[in-house]
Amino acid sequence: MGKSKVFLVSLGCAKNTVDSERVLGLLKERCSLTSDPSEAELILVNTCGFITPAKEESIETILELSEYKKKGAKLVVFGCLAKRYEKELKEELHEADLILPTEPFKEIKTFFKIPLEGEKDRVLLTPRSYAYLKIAEGCNRTCAFCAIPQIRGKFRSKPIEELVDEAKRLIEAYGIKELVIVSQDTVYYGKDLYGKFALPQLLDELQKLSIRWIRIHYLYPSAEVYKLTEYLERYSQKVLPYIDMPIQHIADSVLKPMRRGHTGSFLKKLLYYIRERLGDNSILRTTVIVGFPTEGEREFGELLKFVQEFGFDYLGVFPYYHEEDTPAWKNLKDTVPWEEKLKRKELLEELQSGFSEKRLSRFLNTESEVLVEGYDEEVGLVPVGRTWFQAPEVDGITYLQLNKGLKLEEGQFVKAYLSKQIGVDFKGEVF
């Protein structure tokens, strides 16, 4: 008897991707992955429920895929939207045969009669060059705009030995060259489990593995980032000097009602400290929210001015969404008109695009190692990869120019001369 065919869509963040890979790992002995939903016996949708557009995309995806269901097929919905609106979805979303929570591993095992052991395997959805390593679940912060603590629960660190074992299996199974560490609040790692900030200890153990790059995402601005900066400066061999730290805003009159737990002066001191210690051979990425209820013209102007003065390498801008059941939804009115939010977003993005290009130009006409990720189908069969300063999915890419007859494989490192810059992308001549 052949394997059943499974079709999966994983929406939202990298943490969701890891959950989807673990679900596929559970099913791999019984199912094979297909790219055609109409031939699948099982259609899986891992949903995102963070902000309104993500919720809308999740619902639209479920409804669209329900049209492809062949006779006898099952449509299973899980993830953040399913957890946040389980009751409503079960009452109204009759297209779904099963609605499960965010980490549905026990439910999947029960439903498909899978033995209780064997929850460790993952089927990668990323290129074989890199994999995400989710080091914790949940969040203990109480940011006013965020619903994640209600959806994902309290912060729960995974033990160091368990994470090292997972990383080993990924390296052995797929030959990955880069580990991208993710969680909702990476600087909190270990506090619940070991009573202290234990990220350096985890990094020490991961650096012993046969991996080339370790990249860290989602650093909450806190005193621990000082310690991490010192670690990167002194002890890091494989951990990239890539700081991804969402600041969300810089004005105190926005940060305080956002319940971020620090001031704009704290953020400035921390950011300038990172840049001073790590220098230009480092990357600083951040995200900000515009249109929060207490953000007036003055506060937005303060944010705009700081972005202009500091010059982040990469910056993402999100308009504020008044999400139900969040502290801001309960305590504040959504006072900034939507058109104004979009206007501020565009202004900031326009400013930042010039800064990103200018900041990254320091790498132009230099030699760099590039991790090959495959071929870009949109511009023809052009090989593409990433340098150390380009994180997967969120930053630019490097288009590779080869000598005739040279072939590249996914997950291979090559040396390239970065001869041309196109915005945040580069052209690299392989030598």
Q: In percent, how helical is the residue content? A: 25-40%
Our count of helices gives: 15
Strand content: 15-25%
Number of structural units classed as domains: 3
CATH superfamily of the largest domain: tm_1862 like domain
| Terminal Cα span | 50 Å
Mind sketching the topology for me?
Blueprint: E1 4-10, H1 14-27, E2 31-33, E3 42-47, H2 52-66, E4 74-79, H3 80-84, H4 86-92, E5 98-99, H5 105-111, E6 130-134, E7 136-137, H6 148-152, E8 156-157, H7 160-174, E9 178-182, H8 191-194, H9 199-206, E10 213-216, H10 224-234, E11 242-244, H11 252-258, H12 264-278, E12 283-290, H13 297-310, E13 314-319, H14 327-331, H15 338-360, E14 367-376, E15 382-386, E16 398-401, E17 413-422, E18 425-430
Parallel strand pairs: 1-2, 1-3, 3-4, 4-5, 6-9, 9-10, 11-12, 12-13, 16-18
Antiparallel strand pairs: 7-8, 14-15, 14-17, 15-16, 17-18
Account of the protein in words:
By secondary structure, this protein is of the alpha/beta class. The chain folds into 3 domains: 4-111, Rossmann fold; 130-362, Alpha-Beta Horseshoe (pyruvate-formate lyase- activating enzyme); 364-430, Nucleic acid-binding proteins (OB fold (Dihydrolipoamide Acetyltransferase, E2P), Beta Barrel). It is 36% helix and 22% strand. The chain contains 15 helices and 18 strands. The strands form 5 sheets. A 5-stranded parallel β-sheet has the order 2-1-3-4-5, with helices on both faces. A 5-stranded mixed beta barrel has the order 14-15-16-18-17. Strands 6-9-10 form a 3-stranded parallel β-sheet. Helix 13 (297-310) links the parallel strand 12 and strand 13 (314-319). Helix 7 runs parallel beside helix 9. The longest helix is centred in the C-terminal third of the chain and has 23 residues, at 338-360. The radius of gyration is 22 Å and the shape is globular. The N and C termini lie far apart (50 Å). 43% of the residues are buried. The mean pLDDT is 90.
